[in-house]
Amino acid sequence: xxxxxxxxxxxxxxxxxxxxxxxxxxxxxxxxxxxxxxxxxxxxxxxxxxxxxxxxxxxxxxxxxxxxxxxxxxxxxxxxxxxxxxxxxxxxxxxxxxxxxxxxxxxxxxxxxxxxxxxxxxxxxxxxxxxxxxxxxxxxxxxxxxxxxxxxxxxxxxxxxxxxxxxxxxxxxxxxxxxxxxxxxxxxxxxxxxxxxxxxxxxxxxxxxxxxxxxxxxxxxxxxxxxxxxxxxxxxxxxxxxxxxxxxxxxxxxxxxxxxxxxxxxxxxxxxxxxxxxxxxxxxxxxxxxxxxxxxxxxxxxx
Length: 303
Ligand code: PMP
Hints:
Layout: E1 15-17, E2 27-32, H1 42-55, E3 64-68, H2 72-84, E4 88-93, H3 98-106, E5 110-114, H4 119-133, E6 137-138, H5 147-154, H6 156-164, E7 170-174, H7 179-191, E8 196-202, E9 236-240, H8 242-256, H9 262-275, E10 283-288
Parallel strand pairs: 2-10, 3-4, 3-6, 4-5, 7-8, 7-10, 8-9
Antiparallel strand pairs: 1-2
The structure holds 4'-deoxy-4'-aminopyridoxal-5'-phosphate (PMP).
The site of 4'-deoxy-4'-aminopyridoxal-5'-phosphate (PMP) has 19 residues, from helix 7.
């Protein structure tokens, strides 16, 4: 495959049938989003947030892009901004992995850290405050921008359908902003309303109730219900402990040669639970948003 711009390598990632046997022989497939050039599912979003802002006249040649992010969206936005030579400021709670923050800076972004205790809400507030101070700035705001689920509705969802070409009994994926889940779930339901869509969160996320608190699983977990979920029929929400997610991270390296991040580990743990209640031999699709390499400093392979 000859390409002329790194952006051409975004998307069309492999869909892998996992070498995992379930008692009822459900086939579990994972979309390997770590194969995107910035290393995560959020390269798709970075491109589309900037393209959308430019199309709507909100981004011009010298506009400073400001975005609150847990990391991967930041890398995706920085990648998209680099190719357009736009300045970027990313607002990141300090708890998120050092590797992700290094990669954002390598791509030319400036970083502003907010206190971990303030969570993503603190980063959102800081991004808005910076935008108020910096003339000709634009905050794409992944947490409310319809281009976020729209990206996944128009790219990831159709890719999954096209890759598999068979009925999908269940779609299982984590939620951070909720854009991935909402976009793909809406697309798959539009193709086959019988597909069950199941969202995954870590303990300390609020979807299944209880107060928000810190967790080690990175990239998923919400402090407020994503607005993208408002008109979505979600069939179930599974809460996965950090220990269960990390156990799957270790297991998949050893048993499948797959170097997955912790949100992918949570997706596997949830998929195994969902598989037990699906018809024998049916198909389940999940997403692996990124790889373990950006969490090595967080001892991702240590029990
Ligand atoms: N996993 C990882 C590693 C992520 O960085 C993200 C994005 N925060 C997600 C899952 C969830 O994606 P979304 O924001 O679309 O819900």
